[in-house]
Amino acid sequence: MEATRTKPEQQVQEFELDISGMSCAACALRIEKTVGKLEGVETVHVNLASEKAHIILRDDTLREDAIIAAISKIGYGAKVVTKEDIRQTRKEKERAYQSDLREFWLSTLFTLPLLIQMFVMIKTNNSPLPTWVSFALATPVQFYVGRRFYKGAYYALINRSTNMDVLVALSSTVAYGYSVILWAQGHTELYFDSSATVITVIFLGKLLEKRAKLASSDAVSALANLEATTAHTIIFGQEKDIPVANLSIGDLVRVYRNEPAPSDGMVVAGSTMMDEQLLTGESLPVLKGPGDVIVGATINKGNPILVRITRTGEETLLAQIMHMVDAAQGSKAPIQRLADAISGIFVPIVLFLSVATFTFWAITRGLDAAFLPAVSVLVIACPCALGLATPTAIMVGAEIGAKRGILVKGGEFLERLTQIDTIVFDKTGTLTAGEMVVSDVWPLRGITSSTLIKTAAAIEAQREHPIAQAIYQRALEQGFTIEQANHTEVIAGVGVRGVVRGKKIFVGQPDIQAIRFSPHIEKQIDFYEAQGKTTVIVTSEGLPMGILALTDTIKPDAFSTIQRLSDISCRIVLVTGDNHHAAASVAQKLQIDEVYPSSSPSKKAQIIHELQTSGHIVAMIGDGINDAPALAAADVGIALGTATDVALEAADIAIMSSETTRVIQALELSELTMRKIRQNLFWALMYNLVGIPLAALGFLNPMVCGAAMALSSVTVVVNSLRLRQESAKLAG
Ligand SMILES: Nc1ncnc2c1ncn2[C@@H]1O[C@H](COP(=O)(O)OP(=O)(O)OP(=O)(O)O)[C@@H](O)[C@H]1O
Ligand SMILES: [Cu+]
Ligand SMILES: [Mg+2]
Question: Which of 135, 169, 252, 458 could form a disulfide bond with 234, CB atoms 3.0-4.6 angstroms apart?
């Protein structure tokens, strides 16, 4: 079920649960049904790969623990995922990786002498190591290091399926067992080296996979480490240090030079340069003055500033980014399902081939000659390269993206991005700089323009919408003191309403049905809009106070981006909530011929659905302020820009910088990654198709097979890592 997300601003409860105990899609569906039935639940989305449930509550009648209880009643575990958890799990993953790494070196230490002995044996035909030493070396590798393969094989077999672990456990056990038998019969030509090599090498493959996964979340853990721990709050003029966890919305904090901002907020005094490098990949620090949005964990490179906190804890941009990358770890790209499917049927076929080989040799050349080729087939056919082909490429691709401020929620979005044929753009903040300026103030008779501006600014204070920022700036520039409005509430894509000095005020779209204005107001609105300006009406108790017109500038890089997208025959559509004049003037300058003006957030999503039903694969690029439904509806939702209330959970890809060229980079990165995956799959399959016959015909002995298979895994990982060099030439 598609989650239709609504604005976080409306205090709608959205949260994620870590689900444990799911083993198949049936489990995920059962959980969705059970939770979906609970009243107060808007939507529930269970992702089997990342083992996460995304839940949106209509209101706050229902508490998380009620949902957790419902899930555990049907036999699954559930717990709320917090930023701390992600940090913890990341630390656990790091520790687990380190202990595996130590174990790998130990396994290599035991395996090397066996390999050396094998080479000496080939040369001088006598083994330097006494047999019991080979046995003593191979046994711990087989049963201690190999335990993970036995465990994997056991779970696969009791679920009546087979996987790579079955192959590894079987081939190494046969080689080991066979060597023990030979040893008992007094032979010296044993195969302890091949059983040890198989285990050690495949273990290496799994380690490389873990390493790649950790690398992609390196960028995020760098962020997490950078996060401030204490905040300098100002209470009644006194500065007091408190832990960041105790911050609440509305707190006033001072951010000193070379300190990270403790959380998301808005500058109320002072101006400085903030280094957003880790968030946006932007190397240059960005100027931030009163009214500007500050993102937590970005570093103050200039004078101290006073910031009012607008978001804390899980709501901050940083927390949302950590959730995103965390979700990326678990997701599976469709092409990976293909690889899993192949290795799924692959294993039974190989088992059959190995038995066939054994039978063939037993008949033609007797039992002793039958073991080797049969074991060789098992060893060489291990599809670990197949298992690595996709995840390593996706991990490296995601890591490259993360370093450029392009956060990909999961492999499937990199893949789907390559299939896009239509791109829907939002206007303000996406194609236009989103730094709007109030160009005209038109108060009605009896109202002064300063009253008009002050009233509007009071309602728009603390809002992150470009229109709100522009009105707030204008009030600041004119040195007005901004009054306190209360019960302010955003109506996504329409405007903002609230109460100022006891009067109900609305600031927003003039053509909302509820109110009809007198002809001379309509005329004035048309006059401004004809100039391509965005107009907002200010009403008090339903009666118009006046009009504010705002202008916006098109981003300089938008021209080349649109040009390049149409060059790769991408259909470009502009969908905006703004009036048709403003939309037309932007579209005409950017040569976009399809424009849908005055589209409400839900209308945007509907337009995307219509495009999809007519057979198009659609990407939506929005600034996320009220594009969440459209971002969720699109095949790939791309949130552009670092506005802190960007609805990351609605987006599949979040581009932290506001440059539209990053969209081109994301497209190119997805092309590169998919090409890399196809290459890897090709090599993995080729090596198997060549290796299996050679092994079956007795040309290869188990050691050579083990080494060859190791080579194939390492080839795939190295090939994936080469993505780093290849991506260096991505659109600058
Ligand atoms: N905070 C606000 N203050 C005043 N008016 C607003 C506000 N938010 C939205 N509006 C009104 O609603 C219209 C559409 O809102 P918004 O710009 O968020 O929609 P959109 O679809 O994102 O448009 P765009 O394509 O320009 O980004 C605006 O042109 C404006 O008239
Ligand atoms: Cu199940
Ligand atoms: Mg917008």
Answer: 252
Which ligand is closest to the CA of 549, given by its number? 1
Q: Could you tell me the CA-to-CA distances from 81 to 29, 322, 674, 729 in Å, in that order? A: 20, 11, 31, 37
Task: Specify which residues 671 forms β-bridges with.
Answer: none
**Atom 23 of ligand 1, nearest CA residue:** 577
Q: Is residue 545 part of a domain?
A: yes
> Which one of the listed residues 165, 292, 426, 635 is annotated catalytic?
426
Distance 156 CA to ligand 2 centre (A): 14
Per-residue model confidence (pLDDT) at position 491: 85
Nearest ligand 1 atom to alpha carbon 509: 31
* 44: region left, alpha or beta (phi > 0 left; psi from -120 to 50 alpha): beta
Q: Which of 467, 497, 529, 631 to mutate to test the pocket of ligand 1 (most atoms within 8 A of CB)?
A: 467
The ligand 1 atom at the shortest distance from the C-alpha of residue 427 is 25
The residue among 87, 104, 124 that closes a domain is 87
Same domain, 414 and 563: yes
How many angstroms is it from 598 CA to the middle of ligand 1?
Answer: 9
Residue type, 669: L
Backbone angles phi, psi at 161, to 5 degrees: -135, 170
Total domains in the fold of the chain: 4
Q: Residue 185 contacts by C-beta under 8 Å, 6 or more apart in sequence?
A: none
Q: Can you read off the two tokens belonging to residue 99?
A: 């202990």
Ligand 3 centroid from CA 378, angstroms: 57
Q: State whether the beta carbon of 232 lies less than 6 angstroms from ligand 1.
A: no
Closest ligand by atom to 490 CA: 1
Q: Crossing angle for the helix pair 147-158 and 192-216, nearest 10 degrees? A: 80
Cβ neighbors of 17 (< 8 A, separation 6 or more) are 52, 53, 55, 64, 67, 68, 71, 78, 79, 80, 81
Ligand number with the minimum distance to the CA of 491: 1
Residue 340: count of CB within 10 angstroms of its CB: 17
Average pLDDT over residues 679-689: 87
- At which of 26, 55, 87 does a domain end? 87
Q: Which numbered ligand comes closest to the C-alpha of 640?
A: 3
User: For atom 20 of ligand 1, which residue has the closest CA?
Assistant: 577
Ligand 1 atom closest to 510 (CA): 31
Same domain, 568 and 529: no
Residues 544 and 615 reside in one and the same domain: no
Structure ipTM? 0.93
Q: Quick one: 649 and 616 in the same domain? A: yes
Q: Residues with Cβ < 8 Å from 480, sequence gap 6 or more? A: 450, 453, 454, 457
Structural domain range at position 447: 437-551
Neighbours of 566 (CB within 10 A): 16
Is the pLDDT score of 137 beyond 60? yes
Classify residue 314 by its DSSP letter. G
Annotated active-site residue 251? The verdict is no
Q: Is the Cβ atom of 427 under 6 angstroms away from ligand 1?
A: yes
Token pair for residue 683?
């090599």
Domain shared by 609 and 511, yes or no = no
Same domain? For 416 and 511 the reply is no
Distance from Cα 28 to the centre of ligand 2, integer Å = 7
Q: What angle do CA 167, 20, 57 make, to 5 degrees?
A: 140
Tell me what pLDDT residue 377 has: 87
What does the pLDDT look like over 636-653, one tens digit per residue?
A: 999 887 543 445 667 888
- Cβ of 577 less than 6 Å from ligand 1: yes
CA of 512 to the centre of ligand 1 (A): 12
C-alpha 161 – ligand 2 centre gap (Å) = 14
Distance of CA 638 to the CA centre of its chain: 11
Residue 363 lies in a domain: no
Q: What is the pLDDT of residue 615?
A: 93
Which DSSP letter does residue 481 get? P
Q: Find the mean pLDDT for residues 548-571.
A: 92
Same-domain check for residues 568 and 645 = yes
